[in-house]
C-alpha cells in the first residue's frame, strides 16, 4: 500500500514541502497582481451559495471559531483592527480584499490538486 501511495504521489519530504511553499507564493503573487476592477468582475462567482447556509456550515463542520484566531492575517485588512469608519470606499475595499483572499485559497487548492497529480 505504501508503495502505491509513493507512486501516486511522487513528491515527498523536502521536495514536497518546497513545491507546496512555491505554489502558495505563486498563487499569492498572481492574485495580488489583480486590480480592484478585475476583482470586482469576479465578485458574482464568489457569492454565498444556498448550501453554505449563510456561513453556518463552516462552523458546524470545521469549528472555525475555535481556531481562526490562531491563523495569521496577511491581507491588507487586519480583522482585529478594522476601521470604525463605514464609508462606502472602505467597505468596498474590505469586500474586495476578502474576495482576493478567497481567490488565493482557490488558486492554492488548484495548485495542490495539480501537485498531487
Automatic annotation (TrEMBL):
<dbReference type="Pfam" id="PF18927">
    <property type="entry name" value="CrtO"/>
</dbReference>
<keyword id="KW-0012">Acyltransferase</keyword>
<keyword id="KW-1133">Transmembrane helix</keyword>
<keyword id="KW-0812">Transmembrane</keyword>
<protein>
    <recommendedName>
        <fullName>Glycosyl-4,4'-diaponeurosporenoate acyltransferase</fullName>
    </recommendedName>
</protein>
<comment type="function">
    <text>Catalyzes the acylation of glycosyl-4,4'-diaponeurosporenoate, i.e. the esterification of glucose at the C6'' position with the carboxyl group of the C(15) fatty acid 12-methyltetradecanoic acid, to yield staphyloxanthin. This is the last step in the biosynthesis of this orange pigment, present in most staphylococci strains.</text>
</comment>
<keyword id="KW-1003">Cell membrane</keyword>
<keyword id="KW-0472">Membrane</keyword>
<dbReference type="GO" id="GO:0005886">
    <property type="term" value="C:plasma membrane"/>
</dbReference>
<keyword id="KW-0808">Transferase</keyword>
<dbReference type="GO" id="GO:0016746">
    <property type="term" value="F:acyltransferase activity"/>
</dbReference>
<keyword id="KW-0732">Signal</keyword>
<comment type="pathway">
    <text>Carotenoid biosynthesis; staphyloxanthin biosynthesis; staphyloxanthin from farnesyl diphosphate: step 5/5.</text>
</comment>
<comment type="similarity">
    <text>Belongs to the acyltransferase CrtO family.</text>
</comment>
<dbReference type="InterPro" id="IPR044021">
    <property type="entry name" value="CrtO"/>
</dbReference>
Amino acid at each position: 500500500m505504501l508503495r502505491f501511495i509513493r507512486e501516486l504521489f511522487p513528491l515527498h519530504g523536502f521536495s514536497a514541502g518546497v513545491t507546496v511553499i512555491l505554489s502558495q507564493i505563486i498563487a499569492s503573487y498572481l492574485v495580488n497582481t489583480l486590480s480592484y476592477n478585475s476583482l470586482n468582475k469576479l465578485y458574482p462567482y464568489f457569492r454565498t451559495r444556498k448550501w453554505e447556509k449563510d456561513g453556518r456550515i463552516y462552523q458546524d463542520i470545521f469549528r472555525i471559531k475555535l481556531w481562526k484566531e490562531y491563523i495569521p492575517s496577511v491581507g491588507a485588512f487586519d480583522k482585529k483592527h478594522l476601521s470604525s469608519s463605514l464609508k462606502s470606499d472602505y467597505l468596498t475595499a474590505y469586500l474586495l480584499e476578502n474576495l482576493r483572499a478567497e481567490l488565493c485559497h482557490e488558486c492554492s487548492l488548484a495548485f495542490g490538486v495539480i501537485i498531487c497529480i
